[in-house]
Automatic annotation (TrEMBL):
UniProt-listed InterPro entries: Head_decoration_D
Pfam families (UniProt xref): HDPD
Phylogenetic lineage: Bacteria, Pseudomonadati, Pseudomonadota, Alphaproteobacteria, Rhodobacterales
Lineage top rank: taxon: Bacteria
The protein's name in its UniProt record: Head decoration protein
Length: 132
């Protein structure tokens, strides 16, 4: 018999947030991705999709549309493969998240790039800890 595997939940990711009405926001996720819980998101600030969020990419080699700066962390799984979807994110702190559930865009592929993304979140008051 196969072991039962439980998908991560909001409680696995979010260890503390001061006031839900302050730290959380409803946002629109850009179509084309199945977004996992814990995804670090960037806000698109220019172009046709301005105002929507997507996975926050590494700045090097990407066109600058604003999403290279970490702006939020998704606190639910959202499948936006076939269209834009609404989602709830942690947008500002104080909040503490578990590093075990954080998901980076594939372009954020080394320690230096990941450290930079986490620093961007820290500037928002969102702290990611190993032992949260």
């Amino acid at each position: 018999m196969a072991p039962l595997v439980k998908a991560p939940t909001e409680g696995d990711l979010l260890k503390y947030d001061l006031e839900k009405n302050y730290t959380r926001e409803a946002v629109t996720l850009l179509a084309g991705t199945d977004y996992p819980l814990g995804a670090i998101l960037g806000l698109i600030t220019s172009g046709a999709n301005a105002g929507k969020y997507r996975l926050s990419r590494n700045a090097a080699g990407s066109p600058d549309i604003g999403d290279q700066v970490a702006a939020a962390v998704l606190i639910e799984h959202v499948d936006a493969s076939d269209g834009d979807r609404s989602a709830v994110v942690i947008r500002r702190g104080p909040a503490i998240l578990s590093s075990a559930e954080i998901v980076f865009d594939p372009s954020v592929d080394d320690t230096a790039k990941r450290t930079a993304k986490l620093a961007q979140l820290t500037a928002l008051g969102i702290v990611v800890r190993d032992a949260a």
